[in-house]
Amino acid sequence: MASKRELLEELLAPVVASLGCELWGIEYQTHGRNALLRIYIDSENGISVEDCEKVSRQSSAVLDVEDPISGKYTLEVSSPGLDRPLYKLEQFERFSGAQIEVRLRMPLDGQRKWRGLLAGVEGDEVVLRVDSENEYLLPIDSIEKANIIPQFTK
Predict the structure, then answer these.
(1) Across all residues in the chain, what is the average pLDDT?
(2) Phi/psi zone of residue 43: left (φ > 0), alpha (ψ -120 to 50 degrees), beta?
(3) Binning pLDDT at 50, 70 and 90, where does residue 2 land?
(4) Pair 43, 21: CB distance under 8 Å
(5) What pLDDT was estimated at residue 6?
(6) Distance from C-alpha of 82 to C-alpha of 19, rounded to nearest angstrom
(7) Distance, CA of 73 to CA of 89 (rounded, Å)
(8) Phi, psi (rounded to 5 degrees) for 85
(9) What Rg value do the Cα atoms of the chain yield, rounded?
(10) Which residue in 124, 81, 121, 113 sits closest to 97, CA to CA?
(11) Which tens digits make up the pLDDT trace of 90-109?
């Protein structure tokens, strides 16, 4: 059975694509009776406030008709930003060489939070180089959350 996030992604990806954007990812969180649906969109030309507004309006219309979320929810549409979250293997592959922060669902070697160099993807695992001697293979399903760590140069 597909998760709520997967169902929402399947429903909204065509809407976002029809507006000339890429559905980067979806976060769905419940807080008691209320829920938050955050849609991240991206584009080669960047994302404007107008892009977010268009996607929000169209997504809201589709969500009203399809009604996949029972109860109250807040809809947010945003660009992924500099500290963009990573959801899919293709995204990890695309940002190979970047510094990332990862939170695992279950501890590995006694810890859930990891930081290091995204060294690539092998099969369905993310390769994280923590230092020059330690490299870890993290199954994509074991990753609860992953974000790029923005690097600023002087």
Answers:
(1) 93
(2) beta
(3) low
(4) yes
(5) 87
(6) 22
(7) 29
(8) -75, 150
(9) 17
(10) 121
(11) 999 999 999 999 999 999 99
Contact of 115 with 127, CB cutoff 8 Å? no
Find the length of the chain: 154
List the 72-78 sheet strands across, edge first: 22-31, 34-42, 72-78
In sequence order, the 6+-apart residues with CB closer than 8 A to the CB of 120 are 92, 93, 96, 127
Query: Parallel, antiparallel, or unpaired for β 99-108 and 111-122?
Result: antiparallel
Backbone angle region of 56, left / alpha / beta, with phi > 0 → left and psi within -120 to 50 → alpha: alpha
Instruction: Give residues with Cβ within 8 angstroms of 54, minimum separation 6.
Output: 19
Identify the helix (H) or strand (E) that includes residue 99.
strand 99-108
Q: Quick check: 128 and 135 in contact, CB under 8 A?
A: yes
In angstroms, the CA 84 to CA 147 distance is 5
Residue from 104, 125, 122, 121 nearest 113 by CA:
104
